[in-house]
Amino acid sequence: MRYLALAADYDGTLASHDRVSEEAMRALERLRISGRRAILVTGRRVDDLLSVCPCARLFDLVVAENGAIVYDPATLEEVRYANPPPKLLLKGLRERGVEPLEIGQVVVGTHAAHRAAVQDVIWELGLEAQVIGNRGALMVLPAGVNKATGLERALRKLGLSRHEVVGVGDAENDHSFLALCECAVAVGNAVPSLKATAKLVTAAENGKGVIELIEELIANDLRRVESTLEEHLIPLGMAANGAVVNVPPFGHNMLVAGPSGSGKSTLTAGVIERLIEKDYQVCIVDPEGDYGTLGDVVALGNQWRAPSVTEILSILEDPKVNLSINLLGIPLGDRPEFFGQLIPNLQALRARTGRPHWLVLDEAHHMLPDTWGHTGSALPKRLGETLLVTVHPEHVAPEILASIDIVIAIGSSPEETLARFGRATGRAVPWPEGMTREPEQVVAWFVGDGQPPFAMRPMPGRAERVRHHRKYAEGDLRWHSFYFRGTDGRHNLKVQNLAIFCQIAQGIDEQTWLFHLRRGDYSRWFRHAVRDEFLAEETHRVEQRTDLPPAQTRQMITELVQARYTLPE
Question: For residues 418 and 201, what is the distance between their CA atoms, to the nearest angstrom?
Fold first, then answer.
């Protein structure tokens, strides 16, 4: 289910002449039975609304006074999000003969014919206030208060984001909250400006239009508007013909595959950034701590402390928080079991809230190995909106690979990467004869569209970060670890990351330090295991200096590492 909530205006939308029809109330009840939420968004005061609306109980929350008040019909609790109207404003309006005046906890309302007088009073008093039109009426509110701000607060209280919501309205003051919703709908009697911006206009008017909308929501989740939501598409890159390559944010799974060091993490980080820019919540399962430095992402866990499933779910309850789950504190062999515990909980959260919108799973061949079914653990029946990153697509469980819609092959042999994916899934890859590819391009294949793979220039991410920065600084390089052995192999001190390297370098005996220094072992490790060419070159210069005492070479090399990487205190 894509849309989990309906946000509806009251006057002119759900209601006609102050009243909601019995048919409309029954439609709201069917909406609730379908598992969806209902939010009423109105310019009316709460007491005024309750005097004419017998169906307030059908709404999870009511946004009143054009966004200034959020009311809970179940608890009768009202929360005010702005200051009351200034007494000077009310006095000035009365002196100008502005009548009638409807005064709420925050809003001041009157007839649209008084607009000039109202604006004059605001100007003369130097107030920071706004005048909002609503067909034949107008409202005065503090700057920054509108139906969108109120709806956003209501959604956060319900644990939903704007991407789970369909909004429906009819008047000028509905523009802001409809723009917030993933899908904006105007009833048939809406003002022309609202119809022009809506993704869907109902054939019927007022409450009958809302009934029409509810029936379609329940029947097929508004499937017919999917192709019109271009503003929510996530750009991946640029094709050879100059066209932007996009991925729809709902209903697709993506695989990024290629050899180590080919740029998978960089491309994935760019996709994550663009998802976050469009308010999609992202949850990253980050085995090596590669994504903890991304902006707007909370990192949970490190090499000393494994995150718990309870912590993860608690953090993801806030739709504004994106999470990177660092698994360095969990032994490699235990990670599939941890993921097996996590994924059903994430799927339950998604069923309830629609979030996290995207799951990013790095080192997917470790989390979802092709041996999964043999261990007795049940594979998730459906991942949904998941980006898998792997060096070995053929080692990912075939049942998971079968759900992939888009494959991005990175590195010098994309044809072989796609062929391995094809063999693992039983698909024939229609590789285009004579396709050329520039070194900075990748190959994309939209598996189900009947078209062959094509070359694409990935859209770069805005974050500048050292590749695999945290893994090299704090993680476990396993078989790429450095060993201080010294002359005749007297030692066997394993260095699994740069933090450990700096610690041992300061304490190892001088003879062992010089043994590796003169052999060029440090720069060789930095170049081939850490893959930092700059650090390797600078270290090589130190290794060539025979005029320096051993203690100074230790200091210079460790300071180079510490300047290049943020090491733990």
Answer: 43
The helices-and-strands tally (H runs, E runs) of the chain is 20, 25
What residue ranges do the domains of the chain occupy?
A: 1-80+145-229, 82-143, 234-460, 463-566
Euclidean distance between CA atoms 335 and 366, whole angstroms: 7
pTM of the model as a whole: 0.76
Q: pLDDT tens for residues 114-163?
A: 999 999 999 999 998 999 888 888 999 999 999 999 999 999 999 999 99
Record: fold of 82-143: Hypothetical Protein Ta0175; Chain: A, domain 2 (3.90.1070)
Identical fold between 1-80+145-229 and 234-460 = yes
For the stretch 234-270, pLDDT in tens is: 999 999 888 999 999 998 999 999 998 788 988 999 9
What kind and span of H or E run contains 268? helix 264-277
SS (H, E, C) 418-447: HHHHHHHHCCCCCCCCCCCCCCCCEEEEEC
Q: What is the pLDDT of residues 520-543, one digit of tens each?
A: 999 999 988 887 778 888 899 999
If pLDDT is split at 50, 70 and 90, which confidence band does 291 have?
A: confident
Helices 521-528 and 533-543: crossing angle in degrees, nearest 10, is 170
Whole-angstrom distance, CA of residue 171 vs CA of residue 41: 12
Confidence of residue 479 (pLDDT cuts 50, 70, 90): confident
Tens digit of each residue's pLDDT (9 = 90 or more) over 300-329 = 988 888 899 999 999 999 999 999 999 988
- In angstroms, rounded to a whole number, what is the distance separating the alpha carbons of residues 228 and 413? 36
Token couple for 400: 């998971």
Q: Which fold would CATH assign to domain 234-460?
A: Rossmann fold (3.40.50)
* Tokens of residue 369, six digits: 């190995």
Mean pLDDT of 543-554: 92
- Show the tokens assigned to 62: 């009511």
Beta-carbon contacts of 295 under 8 Å, excluding residues fewer than 6 positions away, are 273, 463
Contact (CB, 8 A) for 201 and 195: yes
- Cα 85 → chain centroid: 37
**Other beta carbons less than 10 A from residue 457's beta carbon:** 16
Residue 159 · residue 276 · CB < 8 Å: no
**Can you tell me whether residue 534 is helix, strand or coil?**
helix
Collect all residues with Cβ–Cβ distance below 8 Å to 78 and sequence separation of at least 6.
46, 69, 70, 71, 72, 105
CATH class of 1-80+145-229: alpha beta
